Amino acid sequence: MKLLLLFAFVGLCAAQYNSNFRAGRTSMVHLFEWRWSDIAAECERYLAPNGFGGVQISPPNENIVISNPWRPWYERYQPVSYKLCSRSGTEAQFRDMVTRCNNVGVYIYVDAIINHMCGSGGGAGTHSTCGSYFNAGTKDFSAVPYSNLDFNDGKCYTSNGEIQNYGDVNQVRNCRLVGLLDLALEKDYVRGKIAAYLNNLISIGVAGFRLDAAKHMWPGDIYNIISRLTSLNTKWFPSGTRPFIFQEVIDLGGEAISASEYTSIGRVTEFKYGAKLGTVIRRLNGEKMAYLKNWGEGWGFMPNDRAVVFVDNHDNQRGHGAGGASILTFWDARLYKMAVGFMLAHPYGFTRIMSSFRWPRNFVNNQDQNDWIGPPSYSDGSTKPVTINADTTCGNDWVCEHRWRQIKNMAIFRNVVDGQPFSNWWDNGSNQVAFGRGNRGFIVFNNDDWYMDVTLYTGLPSGTYCDVISGQKEGGRCTGRQITVDGTGKARFQISNNDEDPFAAIHVDAKL
Ligand code: AAO
Fold it and tell me: Which stretch is the leader sequence (predicted)?
């Protein structure tokens, strides 16, 4: 009996690392700042048919409305209450999105802002997205309700109540992060309010949570809140399914708090991944793709089954957060596609694909003065819809990286090779590399400044394959280049350093 209980407990804990995706789906896409109605449509028309597993959505709860600067994207990281209305839509639209996405097997993961409320600057009379009253000056959030008793200020000993030194664990977790009112998560009352918010989302049908600013919360407090969560809605998930938990902890090394303090609670964002991969693909600091042979834990990353990985996120694509100038984004499209392609082909970690909006950048001394600009919107501040062009790309300044053929096809590649080992590595000692995934897929990169013409063992069955980077298989033919694997499993790859995309990938579902 005791043994049985132990197994049940272990099972419960392990479950939180599982994305709960439908079988055969492996990647999440962050539809940053999208409206709920657009996400619902995207699940049905694009994400489900192309094998995406889930969507990370922007925070759905009520937040402060900032008018100076005008409606920045980051206002959504300043909660006012846990009511479900935001620039992305109403509660009814939110429920409709969750239902429609779940019905096609694409699950919704909520960006949960539970470390803090809004910045200390918002006084009475400041606007909020559902019109709830609040006063940041007196710490009165009556729509929750929270009062001045529910914040951490008494436990912070810095001169201005702010985090001043990331080397001091107590500051990082008890003081204010960039002026945001820091909730007292050790209080039973506060834990209860947060758990009620998350449980409401679970009952609507969401499948898990990104925990924003997890580094700024004590692991024990997070653990307590997570243990109060109910299992997922049985309309879509097997009874007893636990919500997927992934925590935003920035750990590039050299600080007092490490990501490993959080890996017993759920998965954790591996920020070293994008920072390092950007450095390699940009060929900075003498890095070469050949060094990627032992990519993953071999590079000092957290254990594979704990990591959420990504090339860029909504912060570091615009200079917030961590990673700096090495981070690749859609602005560097050619290198970016290679980086995302590498990520999706490589077995390490749980992969998240970024989907962004464009904004007018304005660099002064290497600093983008427009890093605050919110999503494409009308003059009244309402977000513009995501329109779809005839060539399947998006309009209205939505970038839709997840719809770029190379990226969409690599998301499919990852599904096709799921569970297969990393195999048949080859490199030229420089920036031409190749590897396979068992006998199901193979990818080749030429990030050198010269032509590549190599014959490599792929591990794949003989036949003619469509390269899914330069094109794809359509109606029994290849729209891009064709690659022939001979009877010994070898294929010749000719990739010019001047190709639009200097890489190629084949998998068994793209065989003619
Ligand atoms: C806005 C205004 C502020 C204003 C505030 C309140 O910009 O001026 O005071 O409102 O009125 C987002 C925006 C913020 C925005 C906030 C609220 O990014 O600009 O503030 O909404 O509207 C830290 C946290 C991490 C956080 C990241 C941005 O640890 O959790 O900062 N990310 C999340 C979200 C993010 C959001 C929030 C949290 C808040 O993803 O969108 O903020 O909800 C070091 C530390 C990191 C730290 C960075 C940046 O990183 O390690 O923990 O991240 O500094 O402060 C090297 C190091 C690396 C270091 C990095 C930068 O790379 O290796 O470790 O340098 O120094």
Answer: 1-15
Mean pLDDT across the chain? 96
Task: For residue 324, give the ligand 1 atom closest to its CA.
Answer: 62
Q: 490 CA to middle of ligand 1, Å?
A: 48
Q: Which two tokens stand for residue 129?
A: 């997205």
> What distance in Å separates the CA atoms of residue 129 and residue 251, rounded to the nearest whole number?
33
Confidence of residue 16 (pLDDT cuts 50, 70, 90): very high
Q: What pLDDT, on a 0 to 100 scale, did the predictor assign at position 13?
A: 52
* CA 45 to chain centroid: 21
pLDDT > 90: percent of the chain: 95
pLDDT digits (tens, 9 = 90+) for 88-125: 999 999 999 999 999 999 999 999 999 999 999 877 76
Q: What torsion do the CA atoms of 251, 257, 54, 320 make, to the nearest 10 degrees?
A: -50
List of residues 6+ apart from 330 with CB closer than 8 A: 317, 336, 354, 356, 399, 401
Catalytic residue among 248, 251, 287, 401: 248
The C-alpha angle 99, 100, 102, rounded to 5 degrees, equals 65
User: By the 8 A CB rule, do 235 and 205 touch?
Assistant: yes
**Three-state secondary structure call for residue 442:** strand
Q: Which atom from ligand 1 is nearest to the alpha carbon of 121?
A: 11
Residues whose CB is less than 8 angstroms from the CB of residue 411 and which lie 6 or more positions away in sequence, other chains included: 26, 27, 50, 51, 52, 344, 353, 402
Q: Does the beta carbon of 319 lie inside 6 Å of ligand 1?
A: no
For the stretch 350-376, pLDDT in tens is 999 999 999 999 999 999 999 999 999
Alpha carbon 147 to its chain centroid, in Å, reads 33
Residue nearest to atom 53 of ligand 1 (CA): 321
User: What's this model's pTM, rounded to 2 decimal places?
Assistant: 0.97
Task: Round to whole Å and give the CA distance between 370 and 436.
Answer: 41
Maximum pairwise Cα distance, the chain: 75
Give 56-108 as a DSSP string.
EE---S-BBPPTTTTS-GGGGGSBS-S-S-BTTB-HHHHHHHHHHHHHTT-EE
* DSSP-derived 3-state class of residue 353: strand
Question: For residue 145, what pLDDT is reported?
Answer: 98
